[in-house]
Amino acid sequence: MIPILDLSAEIDEIRSDIDKAIKKVIDDTRFIMGDEVKVFESACADYLGVKHAIGLNSGTDALLIALKAAGIKEGDEVITTPFSFFATAESISMAGAIPVFVDIDEATFNIDAEAIESSITAKTKAIMPVHLYGRCCSMGRVMEIAEKHGLTVIEDCAQAFGATYLPESCIKAREKKEASNSCNCSPEWQHRLKGSKAGTMGLAGAFSFFPSKNLGAFGDGGLIATNNDDLAETASMLRVHGARKKYHNEVLGFNSRLDTIQAAVLLAKLPHIDRWNKRRLAAAGIYNMLLEQAGLTENLITTPAALQGDVFHQYTIRLNVNEIGKTRDQIQKELSDIGIGSMVYYPVPQDKLPVYTGQYTPQPLSAKAAEEVLSLPIWPLITMKTQEQVVDGLRKVVLG
Length: 400
Ligand SMILES: *Cc1c(COP(=O)(O)O)cnc(C)c1O
What we know:
CATH class of the largest domain: Alpha Beta
CATH architecture of the largest domain: 3-Layer(aba) Sandwich
Number of strands: 12
CATH topology of the largest domain: Aspartate Aminotransferase, domain 2
Number of helices: 15
Distance between the termini: 20 Å
Strand content: 5-15%
Helix content: 40-55%
Order of helices and strands: HHHEHEHEEHEEHHEEEHHHEEHHHEH
Bound molecules: pyridoxal-5'-phosphate
Shape: globular
């Protein structure tokens, strides 16, 4: 069976560094807030190009704590995408706020920035864009709109550690009809954000180190990145029960620290992330080429643009189910029957989840994507041979 993700190859590459790092944590016995946490936070802040990085228990906590630290409260509206993992909307709801869903750009699966403005009301306080599958949203446009309306932007970067926002990539994608007009921001905003890492453009970025993410720990982990001193101070306080000084709790907080052992693993992995992300992008380019050569891309399958700056947390194709004459779930099952793993991110958009029954009118493009997307095996060290097997299997199932 070809798995959707094989973590063993990248771990093997740096196994001795990881073993050493873990052993040191065990020898030091500082399992909570040991030195590695601070060292990792500062390495992460340097890598991303921000003033503050705050290690946390998970990406979900990073989203929730960022919202709380940004002052989002009961009754506020937060604009986000329906097409994401539930932690996105869940964090908004857990903060007491109301998620307002704006539909996606059909080509990138990210929020359609051009559709945001018409959903802004007097209650809107923030926008939470998600850089899905490892591609930055049209952040120029998101930030331009946010500034115009005085809104806070909290980026969900769980799938985009190391992704870079390059407006020229975005424009190229638009010209090739691989994206809508949503990267239509002013040249001033393009210039301001060009080359920024995901998670550094809004007020704060929330990252996840869940093992399957591009920078994955050996358990749960998360992080907030920000240039804002106040937000950093509040988030640091919220992660330890709302106390600036131990046993002098000032507000209700969380128990949400990044374990020392996870920080040590992440520190060992961080120097390799750019190389691994580049290999993911290269693998995506190879899939695009192989699928085209197999004659699948004319009108059966839509492939993702593989643009500079993208880090391909997932390689996700859209199946033209009408043209193929099979449902996506059928195709996925037939692939599995011949030993090819795949995943559906996500089968149910957030606005259609049981938790929100009766509260939303589903957004049509997200609902359509939920029936047509399929993510294929990808990881940094995937081989050409494995990719050929995947495409060959897909050809048999789709044309078969
Ligand atoms: C993984 C993920 C999260 C949540 O991260 P955890 O570390 O699992 O809590 C949030 N948003 C998106 C888009 C994700 O993919």
